[in-house]
Design brief:
Elements (H helix, E strand, L loop, with lengths): L1 E2 L5 E2 L3 E2 L2 E2 H7 L15 H17 L12 H18 L1
Helix pairs in contact: 1-2
Length: 89
């Protein structure tokens, strides 16, 4: 559908008319990023939000952890650690 600021392809993946992205959210293997939901259809915004809420309640996948770390927070922490290592060298 588009390329993000890191030049990665961002798309909705369908397989035999099944929304694979939505299934990942339902299974607790993906986040529903609220920052980007404006790029979704109104129906998808509802479906994805509900899917994440259900996965959270059921403690599926990443929601098993009491405080799952967002990918962006993980990258920030990783980059911070790498920068500290560079300063020590």
């Amino acid at each position: 559908m588009k390329r993000d600021k890191y030049n990665r392809e961002v798309a909705k993946i369908l397989l035999d008319s099944k929304d694979i992205n939505l299934q990942q959210v339902k299974d607790g293997f993906a986040w529903h990023y609220k920052e980007y939901q404006r790029e979704q259809t109104a129906d998808d915004q509802i479906l994805y939000a509900e899917a994440e809420e259900e996965a959270r309640k059921a403690k599926c996948g990443l929601w098993f952890d009491a405080q799952p770390q967002t990918p962006s927070d993980f990258r920030k922490a990783k980059n911070s650690k790498e920068m500290k290592k560079e300063r020590v060298k």
